[in-house]
Amino acid sequence: MSAEPPPPVPLDNRFARDLPELAVPWRAEPAPDPRLLVLDESLAAELGLDPGWLRSPDGVGLLVGTTVPVGATPVAQAYAGHQFGGYVPQLGDGRALLLGELVDADGHRRDLHLKGSGRTPFARGGDGLAAVGPMLREYVVSRAMHALGIPTTRSLAVVSTGRTVYRETPLPGAVLARVADSHLRVGSFQYARATGDVDLLRRLADHAISRHHPAAAGAERPYLALLGAVVAAQASLVARWMLVGFVHGVMNTDNMTISGETIDYGPCAFMEAFDPATVYSSIDHRGRYAYGNQPAAAEWNLARLAEALLPLLHDDEEKAIDLAMESLDGFRRRFDAAWSTGMRAKLGLPDDVDQAVVTPLAEELTALLAAGRVDVTSFFRALAGAARGEVEPTRRLFPDPGAVDDWLTRWRALGPDADGMDRVNPVYVPRNHLVEEALAAATDGDLAPLGRLLDVLSAPYDERAGLERYAAPAPPDFGAYRTYCGT
User: Fold this and answer.
1) How many angstroms separate the Cα of 435 from the Cα of each of 131, 136, 250, 463, 468?
2) Active-site annotation holder among 93, 206, 254, 264
3) DSSP 8-state code for residue 49
């Protein structure tokens, strides 16, 4: 007797229908011994998926791509991209598949996407696989980013495959199932533009407008409005990264979404000692994507999007360039505004404090933090205590406590709101040594440290007794930290 069919999973394939030129139908490689490691049950419920069924053999099969619902069409997406400044005309999903789209409980269309599911026509010589550690890293960091309120792709599950993946050493293989508003990237537009097919470029832009920026459809120049909407979304996103010390690590154009969500958590990390030159990626030898360079990198990527959209902006190329430049000019203004608003909140300063006071105060503070290499998360959380009169914990974070005294006096005179500061300055972020501890244990089969870390990160603003080690910086013997892309 044949097995019972899985319950219907309403996976649509609108992307593949609208843009077949950017979608190669493909299937995941078999997983010899799939075992569910982690599942975000609340996200499953948002998507209308039964967590109990997802834990069943058929559900796990969906999460690794071997059980495909009737009517679904998994595809590998085509896109191009600039990688560390060098243009690659064809990248695409080399080890990933878009299973399809779900409509969530709020009526929003969301992608269900796999990472590590095997080689595709875009694999470029790679094995198409992923290891447990890097896939759990994306699970941990994306969960933390969501809890911090930062727009992000989200991780639904990680499944070990029972296959060995060969990197520097043999490692257990895994597949990540992740969810996004879409996987449209700047690189998607670069690919479409490179084909020379203006109709394809227009259909891609219309798809992006419909899915992410519908207000642009009613604008006098819809495609210019689309560009402006992406500029605004990315300015806000990168400002939020900067405010919590997040370093993406690989801001190539294929890793910048049209939706404004953070995507592809490879060599990423949260900065501890404040230093604009901080780099965690093992392959970013020149610091192109260092913490302090992230706004400029985003602006550069958006210029590549503008170049791709030029044929849609105006029939006259010179006028199209002028329109694009005017839109791009808004990035720095929007980023500065978002950063300033965020810093005002982190410093607890009331609305009636003039911005002309806030901006130099914030800039002076970042210089002090950099000079003292102060742990940025600890500093802002301790600062609320200083607003309540307990200044010593903040002073002790500096090698020379007196260096911050004058700044603290002037800041406290502005009447900061300590309770408001606690609502926006996290106690807990994914500390690098704790992430590595959890991933190493999970790779060896012990999921307990991972579970404890995820529980802590689920409520980053709520200080809890007994969790002091999760709020503390790495010990001195942890050493210089490097992360890897996992391919």
Assistant:
1) 15, 9, 19, 19, 15
2) 254
3) -
